Structures
1.
Amino acid sequence: MAKVILINSFEVPQAKEDECPAFWERAAEYMRRQPGFVSTKLHRAVISGAGFHFVNVAEWESPEHFQKAVEKEEFNDLVAPYMNVFPHYPGLYEVIRT
Amino acid sequence: MAKVILINSFEVPQAKEDECPAFWERAAEYMRRQPGFVSTKLHRAVISGAGFHFVNVAEWESPEHFQKAVEKEEFNDLVAPYMNVFPHYPGLYEVIRT
């Protein structure tokens, strides 16, 4: 299957905005070690108060590679403390128009 | 100011999924004619039923260029019929980590 784009939008309480990049760093360090990982970029809203203050956009070789990476216990242990602090809306996408 | 990334996530009812790319084409045609436009990509969810079935990711020379583009009457006339059909969550971002 073709490459896929993960787009994951985060709702981050203003008081926790400094914590999000640090959490992203730890998750990115894990992801870079996984088979099929291509790249990842953390986006921060230019204007404070946006619905989603942070958005992660990552590229993976296939949906299966991404799925395997997030199913591992190491990853679950890593993200568990943040699951409720940062409500997030991940999806896997393909580019259909440019 | 530096380049900015527009990330706009769309909630699209399943029955309207075919209409979204056609709407995007019309909006993209308008955007390409505006000063400061750099690029735009329409992403479609790989798996049906994702929270956001489509995500537009576009690059602009500055927030001011984007703001001017969406304030014009021509753009408002273009998108008005779709505002309630496709609830959407736009934000302007900068890349802070790669």
2.
Amino acid sequence: MRILIKNAQILTMTAPELQKGDILIIEDKIAAVGQVPREMLTGSEKVIEADNHLAMPGLINAHTHAAMTLLRSYADDLELMTWLHDEIWPAEDKMDAEDIYWGTMLAIAEMIKGGTTTFADMYGPFMDKVAEAVTSSGIRANLSRGCVGAADPEKIKIAENIALFEQYNNGADGRIKVWFGPHAPYTCSKEYLQKLAQAAWERGSGIHVHLAETTSELEQIKEGYGLSPVEYLAQAGIFDGPCLAAHGVWLSDEEIAFLKGKDVSVAHNPVSNMKLSSGAAPVAKMLACGLNVGLGTDGASSNNSLDMFKEMAAAAFLSKLSTMEPTSLPAYEVLKMATVGSAKALHWDKEIGTLEAGKKADLILLDLNQPHFCPWNNSVNDLVYSAKSSDVTHTIVNGQILMEERKLLTIDLAEVMAHAQKCAKRITAK
Amino acid sequence: MRILIKNAQILTMTAPELQKGDILIIEDKIAAVGQVPREMLTGSEKVIEADNHLAMPGLINAHTHAAMTLLRSYADDLELMTWLHDEIWPAEDKMDAEDIYWGTMLAIAEMIKGGTTTFADMYGPFMDKVAEAVTSSGIRANLSRGCVGAADPEKIKIAENIALFEQYNNGADGRIKVWFGPHAPYTCSKEYLQKLAQAAWERGSGIHVHLAETTSELEQIKEGYGLSPVEYLAQAGIFDGPCLAAHGVWLSDEEIAFLKGKDVSVAHNPVSNMKLSSGAAPVAKMLACGLNVGLGTDGASSNNSLDMFKEMAAAAFLSKLSTMEPTSLPAYEVLKMATVGSAKALHWDKEIGTLEAGKKADLILLDLNQPHFCPWNNSVNDLVYSAKSSDVTHTIVNGQILMEERKLLTIDLAEVMAHAQKCAKRITAK
């Protein structure tokens, strides 16, 4: 399909300046941005008049557990271990394939409505259902089977991750990438980690892992191995290929430099880190060191939404508070984290993350005709400090319009919500 | 007018439980909540079918500078003193009566769209224009003329605050309350503060003041007077009547107990405190001590929106992070701050803050049919952690519908935005 977006304020994310212009999409790619050659201005099946709208790259959620939407608002304001042991894990144990499918569809619906065009998901079992939901909804995703080694003596989960890779990597017209998901240092033995790293590198794939999220993780790994979580994962070879490390709340300056040297990316999850009292990740230090940082929401049970606009604001606020420097993490840096930073973290930056001719057409439009955008100063600041996910009017992935004037085109939201409500009721019954 | 709201999920804020039922409004008051007597179910001019909606008290913004909307996104990510001296104050010096009117109207439009039904404003000059905007828009407000003593040798600002009181207190059908606004410990001499306190107490009015916002304020008052800001204001008699102290970021345990003893209320502004790197107010300690806390957005130039839903989430997240206790400031406590806490802070709790028969009809409806509210667990948690200001469909103040299905009924938004854009351009021109 050929789509022409006319007269938008365009933020390409190759520079912080806005430009007024058009965007031409041909099939799954951006054909032209800004000045569309006159001879290409005709012949589009779809023309979107985008006066008073801003076009920007779709937001990329670099770390979530999509189907945890089913546990939204089910167990809040609890101690971390009470939350996990008494509430989350027992409910997760009851999840079947249907639950994963509908929970993921609900997450995807929420993400598309909030301008997210790609997400990195680590969950399981039944990741094939996640792949199905991604395929049918039209969104883009990096999927990994969350492998808790402590509960996997037969390495069945590793086999499932491999099967997921074989079946779905590069599937759905290239919208699905499969990586490998060792859950965390405190749930995987060194040997188990090595197996997963080997499985990933053999296939030219990557690793998605939790890292240094809480002080109790630090204590546990220190006690068990006399190492820090970074040292432990490094010994297991987890950083010897493409690696997305979620959280990174408790990293020393030396570890930040080390991870930078290894070309690891961190997925920053400010809302979850605050809500669960995990701590404030030293994001400003990471960026100063050149370590790539993406932005994620974590699962809905610890957020409780999958709203990347809320997450961007939280990232800025948390950094300014924790460093006591109001200049820390300025707006454009935050926008970079949520777009090009996340794209790079998923090793997808050649295809997504900016609006450039030749890249995949993953982009969103925001309605600027809102009181909270007035006065409009042609500044990117309010995309971080004032914008709301409800300002997103159009979400386009791979050249397909998934939301138009806030209406989802590929998802029957009423059906998804009815199923999700039913699934949630069953798994949270005590 | 007689309005019947049918079949809503009702959160009265007298208890954390939701109840399904109806609400009857007669003229400016709530006539019945929950079970409306059968004989009263007929004869309403307006019936709102509220299935799939939640009704709750309107949110009360306990501290803002409304017309600062004109400075939104104009000067972000700067050092506090650079921000104030080089950007904010020079722009404010250029503001005339028209600017204050349109800036305030823009703020009111944004607040009504976000479910705020009352705000406490400290700004000036031209507070009569703020009163005009409140009068015509239908919102409720506590107004005080911000009096910077250091720039007021003739005490003209105090005279203006008195004139504002004489003309507008209890005006607009009781929707306006006028208090007195000594700006802050660091901008007012003791004698100046005393004059304002006297002016307030003589008239049975109250005081709205900034207090202990930054460490530099603490240092300045220590250096100038050998006192803490609380001690300084106490010596000037500022706490000897109704007093709303904004921020309270840097209060000791003893000061919290002292303020509780004086029946002072604190307006907590988490977003502004994070964005400007002011610090984390010890809100959990305040509440544990019984000190009343309301919630505010501060001005749009340090937020950058006037979104009380965003502010509620920020309050919860900030407290959980700064105490490193995930149980700190649970959702219902946050909702109390934004409703009954703020109402009490404005000494308006006999009339607003909860949904009870006999109280003023200040309430909002939220559309629960949203993916981020699914699954719906009849829990108030998602009003803090997932709700968005865009979920508000109806805003009612004093029995008048100010927004219906997201359309403003008393404000011409396009006109307001056009004027505000023009005003902002002039005052921020360099």
